[in-house]
Amino acid sequence: MDDRNIRPSENTRPGTGQQAVRRRRRKKNMTLYYIMVFVIVVAAVLFLSRFVFFRIEEIKISGTDLYTREQIIAACGVNEGDNLFGTDIKEAEKVLSSLMVYADEVKVRRELPSTLKITIKQAVPQYCVFHNGLYFTVSESGRLLETGMQQPDSSLVLVSGFNIKDTTPGVKLRSTDQLKEKILADISDGAKKLELKGITEIDLTDRTDIKIVYDNRIEVRLGSSYDLYFKLNYTKSVIDSLAETYGDSYEGTLIYHSSTSGMSAIPKDSQTGPAVKPVEPEDSSDDADSSEAPDDTSDETSEDNGDNGDETPEDSGDNGEEVPEDDDEALWE
Fold first, then answer.
1. pLDDT at 153
2. Average pLDDT of the residues of the chain
3. Residue that finishes a domain, picked among 97, 122, 147
4. Is residue 299 one of the residues assigned to a domain?
């Protein structure tokens, strides 16, 4: 056999092991190099975006005419020239909401490359709540706007018997009697859904004898808060029926008895009045079935010597009323 034809394998060549080690070491070094370059680039981009680029060149403000541009900018603490991404948006919203009583909702958004947009939902006054001899203005969302007024605002719905828990401007309206919060919210929501416009007063002094006043001329005695939406729907039907007959001239009192006994319509300066049975309100058949039957002493004609002379179990107490479990849960939308 010719030994000259026998060649050593690649693995047995001198220096082959050292070359493999060097290649692995070089590959590891390149990986570390790329990682370092990536970190440096990211850090540079973050630095430039925070301190060099994306400066605020314009602040757009919309949704309010009660506060000036200068007041809003000063309140949120953001100025032109500040970095767009260095601005704490959530903190700006929180500060504006707390300092601007008439701001029901505040949204702060970034608009690249250099604009900060502030949108404010302005509070709309709806209620004037009487409490401890003073009057307090409340927005549609239940936010306290004006406090400690000597005279009521006649353009708002007057609320009495609510017992305000905290009179600090800007907080949500809360009552020492939590159920009254729910009753007021239910009346507000029900009237809105039913388009029952014209409520001028709400009396919650006795929550088993809830009263509302329509157009400053018709007092409506609803009894307890049980089945309140149905009662409001029934009331709207009666008022519409009276409007067809008397127009806007009718003055008096409506007393709700039950879904079967109807309502007593008592004209002003009259002691008695006939029970009114309007056309059944729309979509209320289920509610009517759920209402309790009237007392056996109920008549078609109500001889009233007080509120709810033919009082049914639903109007004789707090049957069906439930106090919300969470004391801190807001009842306003």
1. 94
2. 79
3. 122
4. yes
Q: Please check whether residue 29 lies inside any domain of the structure.
A: no
Question: What type of residue is 285?
Answer: S
Which tokens in the block code for residue 331?
A: 């009842």
Q: Residue 115 belongs to a domain with what CATH number?
A: 3.10.20.310
Cα(328)–Cα(178) distance, rounded to whole angstroms?
10
In terms of residue numbers, what domain contains 291?
177-315
Span 72-128, pLDDT tens digits: 999 988 888 888 888 889 999 999 998 999 999 999 999 888 899 999 999 999 999
> Does 256 lie in the same domain as 189?
yes
Question: Average pLDDT for consecutive 10-residue bins of the chain (333 residues)?
Answer: 53 61 69 78 64 79 92 89 85 92 92 91 95 95 93 96 94 94 95 94 96 96 94 95 92 92 86 50 47 41 41 43 47 48
In a domain, 211, yes or no: yes
Report the residue count for the chain: 333
Q: In the chain, how many domains are there?
A: 2
Spatial distance between the Cα atoms of 72 and 249, rounded to a whole number of angstroms = 48
Q: How far apart are CA 285 and CA 115, in angstroms?
A: 55
Same-domain status, 102 and 199:
no
Identify whether the C-beta of residue 80 lies closer than 8 Å to the C-beta of residue 138. no
Residue 28, both tokens? 């590891």
Note the pLDDT of residue 272.
46
Which amino acid would we find at residue 79? N
Q: Are 98 and 199 part of one and the same domain? A: no
Q: Are residues 181 and 103 in the same domain?
A: no
